[in-house]
Design a protein that fits this description.
14-stranded parallel beta sheet
Length: 767
């Protein structure tokens, strides 16, 4: 990535409001101490919730307003850190006056009074649950559905379609004789329908997958921390790993890989996150693991010169952070921040205020201020922000409460109220019996806010006994044998050379990696191919091209795929591609999507612009295209593609959608004659929609150029699309970084030439 000069900004002052003293004189509640809510759960019931910022020994709720009752004083029930009490005997229009008494480090405190009017809010039916949960079974199953909302009924489908209020009414157990997906919604009078719950039952195809117990050996590169361990012991291991993974000059292309996994509980530690490091909680929901400290990425090294533009390949997921002074996550590409509950502020810029070039947040909540400041671009999906501040070129939000309104280009912010289709990543957790499972979140439509915002994430889970744990010494042959036997795959941190293609042929297969497991194809094979089947989930993998050219690193669906997967799409999430940098890699294409309805949720396809000696150059790390989409109804949320030598993205499928695109054209074009497209114009567009496409839409797309080898090089346009009313784009920009070369137009013949001074050329809407 291009390193740029530091950029200063004004100081941010955040004042905490102190509430007036209440009934109990022993303490005055601070607004920052807690969050609270009252929510309708049935026609006659409401649930009052109180979540302290730090754990409390007790929380009491006091309330008045229930007909026929005076003041009630009740000790609330602690549900994983959120204290709750259900109030009954309510009718529409009943007004509750309520307040709390809570303990904090010994003293007790009173809050101000709050009011709740029953029936004034929508209220939502609880999400239906499945027993047994979805998974792989050797024989037919009898499935029971249930809903915790009093008086609720359940409607369901068994063909993978989305259930509605007119779908089949659940009246008793459902027979599942063969593989199928059950979707269900809960319905109750006076309440909004529940979110759609989904469970896939794979019958009879995986009986041979008995590779390890449900408490497996994850190998030497997975650190598993227990709250019973001393903080000093844990901190020592975190620091040792960080020191090994910290340095940008020596660790960026090294082969060390590590994962830090925290069992449910509270920890007083600070985890500085270096290259190829994954940090994750092992609870079923983010609040099950609480870090009283920080999960930090910064411009750590003197060689970084205060900039964070090379802070790649690191992640944080599925935990809560209580960060004194805010949590810093100053990253560039391939550094997802998922399923995190930040109980305070979040800083996305380095402490030096130097440049950063990220980034991606999903399925998270930040109670305080999220400050991007010097981040060049950022995408946020299905999240709740207390407040957002800042933006340089391209800040995009979908399904994010608390996001700023669309003001592109001044400020450069683009906001969609919901995410049209999303499904959060599969993740490892420990159940109540101490066994490891992988949770599979349900598909969401028109989502807003985190999937766990109202409780547990809807979905199903699989036992680890149905996974093959891939560790050092495994070969393509052993991995394929596990797939053939019906296993899912859990890749542990490491580098894996493949002399044959990994073939994913079974519907519902999960391939989950932690600690940036890296797959390198040898002898020109394609690294991985997925059949045209339902519901494959790929997450947390790094494909690194080998020195013999591969036609593709990952292919989803064979050429000509035609099946519909709308009810259970394949998802490609936190999957990254690298051509060069580590070795002199070569691959014509990084990702080819032939199947329909695929969700591409956060990828970075990168032809390296820097790396180890001899691994980077116009004729060295060769690669034509980062992403080729031939399937219909494909959605990309968080698409990063950089430096490929021809069209970087080609989209031939109908009804495609992209929410956020970040691109840099190749730096190292030697001359204009070697870089002219078949369209008969200078250069290759970064994003090309096929000439036969009649329906396509994109929001928040930026392409930058930095032709530093030959600044006379020009690209005619960054976006090349058919001129038809069904092909629409919103919030597009181009930038010439340090004015090294130019882009004449933004999209087709529209938009001004890139300007001096690293200033964007913008197009608000096209056509």
């Amino acid at each position: 990535m291009l390193r740029s000069q530091q950029r200063g900004w004004r100081a941010i002052l955040v004042a905490l409001a102190v509430t007036a003293a209440s009934v109990v004189p022993s303490g005055t509640a601070l607004a920052a101490d807690y969050t609270q809510s009252a929510t309708q759960v049935s026609a006659s019931q409401a649930q009052i919730s109180f979540t302290p910022t730090t754990p409390a020994l007790y929380v009491d709720v006091h309330y008045t307003g229930v007909p026929g009752l005076g003041q009630q004083n009740v000790r609330m029930t602690n549900n994983n850190g959120t204290w709750q009490h259900t109030v009954g005997s309510l009718t529409t229009g009943t007004v509750l006056d309520y307040w709390f008494t809570y303990e904090k480090n010994g003293p007790q405190f009173d809050t101000p009074h709050f009011t709740y009017t029953h029936g004034s809010g929508a209220g939502t039916v609880a999400t239906p649950t499945f027993s047994p949960p979805g998974g792989v079974y050797s024989s037919a199953q009898t499935v029971t559905l249930s809903d915790s909302t009093p008086g609720a009924s359940i409607r369901y489908t068994v063909d993978g379609s989305t259930p509605t209020a007119s779908s089949t009414l659940y009246t008793g157990p459902i027979s599942v004789p063969s593989t199928r997906t059950i979707n269900a919604i809960g319905i109750a009078s006076g309440l909004a329908n529940s979110p759609v719950a989904s469970a896939t039952y794979t019958i009879g195809t995986a009986a041979g997958c008995t590779t390890q117990p449900d408490v497996p050996n994850f190998g030497p590169n997975v650190r598993i921390f227990d709250p019973g361990m001393s903080a000093g012991t844990i901190q020592g291991q975190l620091d040792a790993d960080f020191n090994a993974q910290k340095d940008t000059l020596t660790a960026q292309f090294a082969e060390r890989r590590v994962a830090h996994l925290f069992k449910p509980g509270s920890y007083s530690v600070n985890d500085n996150v270096g290259f190829y490091t994954s940090v994750a909680g092992l609870g079923q929901n983010p609040g099950d693991v609480v870090i009283n400290g920080h999960i930090t990425v910064d411009a750590f090294n003197a060689s970084d010169a205060g900039n964070a533009t090379q802070n790649f390949w690191r992640s944080a997921e599925n935990l809560a952070i209580n960060p004194a002074g805010g949590n810093r996550w100053a990253v560039a590409q391939a550094a997802p921040f998922r399923r995190i509950d930040v109980r305070g502020d979040l800083q996305l810029y380095p402490a030096s205020f130097g440049w950063a070039s990220g980034g991606y947040i999903a399925d998270s909540r930040v109670s305080g201020l999220t400050a991007s400041i010097s981040q060049q671009q950022w995408y946020t999906r299905d999240t709740n922000y207390g407040r957002w501040d800042g933006g340089v070129w391209n800040m995009v939000f979908s399904g994010t409460t608390g996001a700023p309104a669309t003001t592109f280009p001044t400020p450069p912010e683009t906001t969609l109220g919901t995410t049209p289709i999303s499904r959060d990543v599969p993740y490892l957790y420990i159940d109540g019996s101490g066994r490891y499972r992988v949770f599979l979140p349900s598909l969401r439509t028109n989502a807003s806010g985190p999937s766990w915002g109202s409780g547990s994430t809807p979905g199903s889970s699989l036992p680890m006994s149905q996974f093959y744990v891939v560790k050092a010494g495994d070969t393509a042959a052993t991995i394929n044998a596990a797939l053939t036997s019906g296993c899912n795959l859990f890749f542990t941190p490491g580098v894996y050379h493949l002399n044959q293609t990994l073939n994913i042929t079974r519907a519902g297969t999960v391939v989950l990696g932690v600690g940036y497991p890296t797959l390198i194809p040898d002898n020109g094979v394609n690294a991985m191919q997925v059949s045209d089947v339902d519901g494959v989930r790929l997450k947390g993998l790094l494909f690194d091209a080998g020195t013999t050219n591969s036609a593709a690193l990952l292919t989803v669906g064979p050429s000509g795929s035609s099946a519909s997967h709308s009810g259970n799409p394949t998802t490609v999430q936190d999957v990254f591609f690298r051509i060069g940098g580590s070795v002199a890699g070569k691959a014509s294409n990084s990702l080819i999507v032939n199947s329909n309805n695929v969700i591409i949720d956060h990828i970075w396809a990168w032809r390296a612009d820097h790396g180890n000696a001899g691994t980077v150059g116009w004729g060295v790390n060769t690669a034509d295209t980062g992403l080729l989409v031939n399937g219909n109804n494909v959605l990309a949320t968080g698409l990063f593609v950089e430096h490929y030598q021809k069209y970087e993205v080609i989209w031939n499928g109908q009804n495609g959608r992209t929410i956020f695109f970040q691109n840099e054209m190749p730096y190292d074009v030697p001359n204009q004659a070697s870089w002219n497209s078949p369209a008969g114009v200078n250069g290759y567009a970064a994003y090309k929609v096929g000439a036969n496409v009649t329906s396509h839409e994109g929001w928040g797309l930026g392409s930058y150029n930095y032709f530093n080898v030959n600044p006379s090089v020009n690209a005619y346009h960054a976006f090349e699309v058919p001129n038809t009313s069904g092909v629409r784009f919103h919030s597009l920009l181009t930038v010439s970084l340090n004015y090294q070369g130019t882009i004449t137009h933004v999209i087709n013949d529209t938009g001004a030439v890139t300007q001096p001074g690293t200033v964007p050329s913008n197009v608000v809407n096209y056509p």
